[in-house]
Amino acid sequence: MADPVTPTIRTCAKAVVVHDGHVLLQRADWEGQDCYFLPGGGQHPGEPLDETARREVHEETGLTITVEKMLWLREYIGAHHEHADTEAGTHRIEAIFHCIPESDPTRLGGHAHDDAQTGLEWVELEKVPGLNLLPHALRQPIAALATGQPSPGYLGDVD
To answer: What's one Pfam family the UniProt record gives for this protein (predicted)?
Structure first.
């Protein structure tokens, strides 16, 4: 019998960087599929989550941003999803922030890209629902930014 897996909780900050009706997304090749992710990543010990979002966006995109407010809180508990056999020890908690660029939004190019990252793209908010944006649960809430403020809150344990 296999030893039980003890999950490690990883806290992260993601950024919904909005400019001129567009959102900044990372293009990626992840598990053999072309997809998109929000910029962001893991929190360092002692680092506030809004600072995590600023640091990660700068590292991955080269942009300096202003964090406006937290939009959503998302969890991913690997044992509850499709790849439970390999991700049973995964438990992520992501704070997702609404952000605006401070630096020139046309000058992109970070110095610490994610391994799967293949590029950066400004995408019209209305087109987000048709993208392979991961997690899929973020597509509609992000698109809702085009017509007003989406409902903030807890998104739950979503893949």
So the answer is: NUDIX
Determine if the pTM surpasses 0.85: yes
Domain ranges of the chain: 8-157
Q: Per-residue confidence of the chain (159 residues) as pLDDT tens digits?
A: 556 777 789 999 999 999 999 999 999 998 888 999 999 999 999 999 999 999 999 999 999 999 999 999 999 888 887 776 777 788 899 999 999 999 999 999 877 767 788 999 999 999 999 999 999 999 999 999 988 867 779 999 988
Helix (H) and strand (E) counts in the chain:
3, 8
Query: Please, are residues 125 and 20 in contact by the beta-carbon 8 Å criterion?
Result: no
